[in-house]
Structures are given as C-alpha cells and as structure tokens.
Amino acid sequence: MDHFHYRDGEMFAEDVAIAQIAAEVGTPVYVYSASTFRRHARVFREGLSALPRVHLAYAIKANPNVAVLRVLADEGYGADVVSVGEMRRALAAGMKPQDIVFSGVGKTRAELAAALEAGIGQFNLELEEEGVVLAALAHERGLTAPAVIRVNPDVDAGTHAKISTGRKENKFGVPIDQAPGMFDRLAGLPGLDLRGVACHIGSQLGDLAPLEAAYARIGELVAELRAAGHGISRVDLGGGLGVPYKPGDVMPEPAAYGAMVARVTQGWDVELMFEPGRVIAGNAGVLVTEVVWVKPGVANPYVIVDAAMNDLARPALYDAYHDFVAVRPNGEKMTANIAGPVCETGDTFAMNREIDKVVSGDLAIFRTAGAYGATMASTYNSRPLVPEVLVEGERYAVVADRIAAETILSAERVPDWLQK
Ligand code: LLP
C-alpha cells in the first residue's frame, strides 16, 4: 500500500497535490512519500517479528537520497552499502557505523581502508584475496575487521537475467562448495573476525521458492562450518523481495517471507541480517512528467513525455513495466506508445498500452519509481539531472536539486592546446 492516491479526481502524494509540486519544481521530478517509506519499513520489520535476532540493513542503492536515509534511520534501519560514496551517505543520514554492512564485488583497497577507519559493522567478502587484504589493512591499523563470506548458492532466482546474482556463472560470491576451505584459511588471520556467511541471489523475486532453496543450502553450510570448529554468529540473507509494478501483480508479502525464513532458519542460533531495497522504496516514489506532444504513429499515437530513459532507466535496461496514469484523468482512455525525448528507440516506456487519455501539457506519473529510479539517472543527451521531492503529510521539500546542464558543462574544459 502506498500514499499516492486520487482525491477529487486529482493525484496526490499524501496531502500534497502532485500538480502543485510540478508547478513549483517543474518536471520531470521524482516525488517520494515519507509515510510510505515508514510503512514499508515497519511492515518488513513486523514480517520478521517471529525471528529472535534481526539486523535490518536497507540496501541504499535502491534509493540513496539522504532525506530518505534519514527517514529509514529514524525507523531503526542500518544500511547495506556498496561503495564509500554510499557509506558516506549512510553516515551523513545519521546511521551508526556499526549498523552498516559493506557489500560489493569490487571494493577497492582504498574503500576497504576507509570503511575500516569509519568502523563499519560488517564486510561481506567476495573472494579469498579480499579477505587477506582486508585482514592486513586492519592489522596495520590495530583494528579487527568484522566479516562474513558471501557465498554463491547456485540457485536460479527466476528473475530478469541482468538482476540475477546467485547462479554459479554470475560474478558474485564464493562457490558454496569452496566456502569451507576459504573459511579455514581466513579464520585464523590476525585483523579478521570471521563471523558467518551471506547470500543474495537476485532482485525483484516474485516467488519465495528460490530464496528458500538458497537459505536451505546456507543452513547446511552453517552446520558444516560449525562441525569444523568455526564460531558462526551471523548469517546475512540479502534482499530481493519483489514488488508489484503492473496492476494485478501479486508478490510475496513480508509476512510470508518472514514465516518462510523462520521455518528454514529454525535452530540456527545466529543474528539474521537482511538487506531489503526495492520492497522498502519501490512503491514509495513516482516520477512526475508532462506530456510534450501526442504524435501520430503508424498503429498508435506516441505520447512523448518530458521524462526519458536518462531519468528512469529501468524500461530501457530491463524492459521493465511502470504504470502510467494521468494526474487529472478525464475518464477517457487511449491506446498509445509512451516515449521520452532521447534520441534512441530504447527511450520508450511502453508500447500499445491502454492509458488515461492525455494531451500535450497534461501531467502524468510513472508509478513504482522509488527504487532504482533517480539513483540510476544520468545526464545523457545533456539533460539536467532530475530533482527529488519528499512529502510527509502536508509538508514537502526539494531533497535533491535539479542539476542544470550548464552546471555539468561548467565541470568540463577545453585543454590549452585546443584553445583558439
Ligand atoms: N543486497 C545486495 C548484495 C544487492 O546486490 C542488492 C541489489 C540488494 C541487497 C537489494 O536488493 P532488492 O531488495 O532491492 O531486490 N537496478 C535493478 C536492481 C539491481 C539490484 C542490485 N542489487 C533494477 O532496477 O531492477
């Protein structure tokens, strides 16, 4: 459930009319609902309430806006970060270093050192050499790095290939059968406190079965590691729960997920860690856009909007569906293609879709744009970087400015030898 709804025929974000934000900030603009973030954070936590020890690390890659992070810090969430840039955001939002997990297949030595110095709570190791380097960096500094090994359980998550991470041919994690040997070799290193294992098999999962299969394998690994004499106090179960994008999509509820986790992890006697991203952020944001033209097409008209693939990349990258509705629908429908102004055919949000009838100048929203939306935006075609607005009740604020094309241009220069 989210807080984007029609009131007297007009789309609101909580108690603020979308049209009012568009008039003030311009379009395209992302609008987030703080109450929806809070609700999702609570529902996810409640879904896990049967579990004895839980640590929640919001995967901030989904939506790293610092105001959003502040809301989630308020809700007691830590962060899963994948770069020092993300770590700095989590800290800037008031999250505690010990509540931060550092994931990622390509953490550089400089990033490992910066995260050690910041005192973050857990490093999720992706390969043995990373563990050796981290141990040395920590030891040199008189520190001990808390770490787990991310294993690749070789499970097909049944999601889009580009966001699937748990099959053995993917770049992520250590093959599960190699994890015990790696554990033996790393566990004794000074500077490293190896506490357990992690896995994350993919994103936008519509079915709990692959997660259950992965977690069952992790359970066997935990037993094997303990039998080999290792102390295992943490298991990080990653993120991945899907959200509904299309009307009629049915996704597993956090409560069903929690029940499955409780069943599979019974008796593990560890602190369970979770890295939810999309399930917290997805339906907490929309992308507001204005119709520039309705251009006649061969089969259907093209609704050309002022948002493009550089603002919301998911349709171009993953053929993702984002619901498109008018801010002030007039009750009529049309079948249309929806596209942005960028000069490539991939800049298409939908083909042959039945939508609210719109004409140029009308406002519309793409729903479920709170996760992997603004954070994946670029300035392709020298378009400004899209701004973000956070609403809570009747209040709203611009929480990220529109970065003008001129500002971006001002960071570039023509070298001496090309100056006339
Ligand atoms: N933990 C790790 C280690 C991850 O790699 C990810 C997402 C998450 C947690 C959070 O997963 P979530 O709960 O959001 O499914 N840009 C793509 C999604 C990429 C997901 C990357 N990793 C999209 O727009 O669909």
TrEMBL record:
The active site is at residue 343. Pfam families: Orn_Arg_deC_N (PF02784), Orn_DAP_Arg_deC (PF00278). Gene3D superfamilies: Alanine racemase, Lyase, Ornithine Decarboxylase, Chain A, domain 1. It is an enzyme of class 4 (lyase). Residues 44-281 form the Orn/DAP/Arg decarboxylase 2 N-terminal domain. Keywords: Amino-acid biosynthesis, Decarboxylase, Lyase, Lysine biosynthesis, Pyridoxal phosphate. Pyridoxal 5'-phosphate binds at residues 240, 275-278, 372. Pathway: Amino-acid biosynthesis; L-lysine biosynthesis via DAP pathway; L-lysine from DL-2,6-diaminopimelate: step 1/1. Substrate binds at residues 278, 314, 318, 344, 372. GO terms for molecular function: diaminopimelate decarboxylase activity; pyridoxal phosphate binding. Its EC number is 4.1.1.20. It catalyses: meso-2,6-diaminopimelate + H(+) = L-lysine + CO2. Belongs to the Orn/Lys/Arg decarboxylase class-II family. LysA subfamily. Specifically catalyzes the decarboxylation of meso-diaminopimelate (meso-DAP) to L-lysine. This is Diaminopimelate decarboxylase. The lineage of its organism: Bacteria, Pseudomonadati, Pseudomonadota, Alphaproteobacteria, Sphingomonadales.
